[in-house]
Amino acid sequence: MRSLLFVPADSEKKLAKGAECGADALILDLEDSVAAERKQAAREGALAYLKAHATDTRPHLIVRVNALDTGLTDADLDAVVAGKPDAILLPKAEGGASVTHLDAKLTAREAIHGLADGAIAIIALATETAAALFLCGTYRSSSPRLSGITWGAEDLSAELGAETNRDAAGHFTSPYLLARSLSLAAASAARVQAIDTVYADFRNMEGLRQEAEDARRDGFTAKMAIHPAQVAIINKVFTPSAQEVEKAREIVNAFAATPSSGVVGIGGVMYDRPHLRRAERLLARANPTSSS
Is residue 118 left, alpha or beta, with left meaning phi > 0 and alpha meaning psi from -120 to 50? Predict the structure, then answer.
């Protein structure tokens, strides 16, 4: 996955528009974009959408449930697991224990609905509370369902009491750069996909492009979106170019030709095993449906 678009699950119009924009994944939202009095309508809308799109030729379908401490998570899962979403996005996750907790809830409901154990993956939204920052190192081995880790700055800035989370130039300030780095390290340690947060200024396409390119440079392999117009740029940034793919294949093939070598030379340049690992990961990303 390269692009993950948030869509309020209580809006048929936005769900239909989201499906047409080319996003690799749609996040059917039951949380922040849905008012309290619309939660049940959103659950029903999410289930109807999941059942209507139970085919192989569709984007990944992910449901963002309400956080574990809201008392709404069980009702969310009771409603949507029957539709077999590809994954659940857990907001305000606080370390591996919260993922393990959600895993248990999913296991019970998969059994009730005749789904295979582990059929539904988990993506953790790992930096929305202050406590969560101290727990980013605990996701590894928390659950085999864990497939991705992402981060958020809006809820975190509210909890910290910040006036803003970006400076005058539109760049994240230091507390949020820390959260970003911790989520990236958490994903790497857990061997799951690192997904960058949303870019809220959806009319600023150049700002989006720059932030996505910075994220790709640092190791993120996907980015969330809040508007369909953002998807094309995100997909382009996170799709390796033909030149990058060619170079990566050259490195992989050189090591395959001499598997016992720790270093290979190509065109007068030396490449070692870390270069090989980066090349392998780039080739995996060259497939838009890859989760790596």
Answer: left
Q: Which helix (H) or strand (E) holds 264?
A: strand 263-266
CB 133 within 8 A of CB 127: yes
Closest by Cα among 207, 273, 266 to 234:
207
Distances (CA, A) of 271 to 262, 263, 266, 285: 9, 5, 8, 20
> What is d(CA 264, CA 258) in angstroms, rounded to the nearest whole number?
8
Q: Which amino acid type is present at position 135?
A: L
Q: Kindly provide the residue ranges of all beta strands, DSSP E only, lying in 65-105, ordered along the sequence.
A: 87-90
Provide the sign of the torsion angle of the four alpha carbons 65, 226, 150, 94, taken in this order: negative
Q: How far apart are the C-alpha atoms of 80 and 237, rounded to whole Å? A: 32
Tokens of 139: 């996701």
Q: How far apart are CA 243 and CA 224, in angstroms?
A: 26
What would the pLDDT profile of 60-108 be if each residue is shown by its tens digit? 999 999 999 999 999 999 999 999 999 999 999 999 999 999 999 999 9
Say how far apart CA 58 and CA 61 lie, in whole Å.
8
**pLDDT of 241 strictly over 60:** yes
**Of 98, 34, 46, 89, which is closest to residue 65 (Cα–Cα)?**
89
The CA–CA distances, whole Å, from 8 to 40, 120, 229 equal 12, 20, 16
Task: Look at the pTM and tell me if it is higher than 0.85.
Answer: yes
Nearest 5°: phi and psi at 31?
-105, -110
Domains assigned to the chain: 3-237 (3.20.20.60), 242-285 (no CATH)
